[in-house]
Structures
1.
Amino acid sequence: MPGEKLSYPGRNYLFAPGPTHIPNQVLTAMNVPQEDHRAPDFPQLVKPLLEDLKKIFRTKKGQCFIFPATGTAGWEIALANTLSPGDKILTSRFGQFSHLWFDLVTRIGLDVEVIEVPWGEGVPVMEIKKRLRADKERKIKAVVACHNETATGVTSDIAALGKAMKKDLKHPALLMVDGVSSVASIDFRMDEWGVDVAVSSSQKGFMLPAGMALLAFSPKALAKHKSSKCAKCFLDIKDHLSTNEGGYFPYTPSVPMLRGLRASLDLLLSEGLDNVHARHFRLAEGVRKAVKVWGLKTCAASPKWNSDTVTAIMAPPSVNAAEVIHIAYHRYNISLGAGLTQVAGKVFRIGHLGDNNDVRMMAALGGVEMAMRDAGIRIKPGSGTGAACEYYRKTAKAIPAFKAPAAPKTKAKRRANK
């Protein structure tokens, strides 16, 4: 049939910045018979999940929530449960997802002031600090920030933003952070950075299917819930506060997703968050070295903005980046991220987050090299993969010393031994 995807042997290589590959342990954990979510022993699953999520967000003071929803719903949960119609919000826009959160703010009746930033840069900490310093009447009730902008491959300095707000200015505004593509992948420290509401979701660093919004609220944000007047029902944390305490949910959860989350948290915590972050840096750095050798540029305006979960690569002006994506998918069974709105047709994106390792990234880079050459981008075959190969080799973990196995004894030697 025209337009029908061809059938390929082997697995599809999923290198969009979400959804990501799901580990076998997680898939197995989710493949269970249906369970009673009101069963007497159900809290034995739920309570440890909520506690272990705090370790991923790196908060001891905060409270975590699990909603059967998406990251977009997470944004609304953060805003609607802490603010009231007409409250003033300060945010910045420098990519598709920072734009979408801005759009959601306006659509639920909040007054938003937006700082426009060139795509390829991140949260403008000094400009936000300037605006907050001028806010003598404390009308700004929240600052909304996107930690990792996947549209452009940019990571912002939330630690510096939190310091500017909480320590330098002591401004009372809430700090709300979109950590959808950063939490469980790159360094995120809720308590240390002064984050009041952190939003994430299941399909990226948590290595699950889409369909689960994961949030953490600080004590300050929880207190604001009592006075918030934004309309909410399904997304109200009030019902979760009462039912989660006993280990249940106010409505039917996706139990297979909860089982998968248990397996995902076990994998992340057994590897160790610092090791998870270091692994993501290594994988990203190998990709960046390949891009440099190819003679191409990333969308990130300077190395300080580089994301360790996704690299957005600028195609030459003569090539539509969408063609690289089209060829990679239909000819080589590789899914890459597309350029969005302002960078549509200008960039293609390689996701390197979640359940990935050196060899899987080498496969991605090899496929991308073939697709780029097919699309007319003049690169030397093997140049990028070679650069990544050498980097991964030199930075690979140490292995035990090799000991050659003893040679098998011949018949003559066996007789001599007798």
2.
Amino acid sequence: MFKGMPKIFWIGMAIMYGWCFLFMFLEMTIPGLPLKRFLGVPACYIYNWIIGLFLINVLVSFIFYRSEEKREELKAQTKAKV
């Protein structure tokens, strides 16, 4: 099923799941971490809503977009040489 997936796919998966597992580990080991106040709201709202659901997804989609453009550019260059 995953045979032939581009390397950038695995990089994106590592970023997203790495974030998830990092904070899952931190929440399990630091007592009260998710509900500690940061900027007046519980910390989990900041690091999950803003960073986890928005910034990381924007970053990964940008990486996917750039890598696909580079791949198409290389493909066009190799066709031009032939």
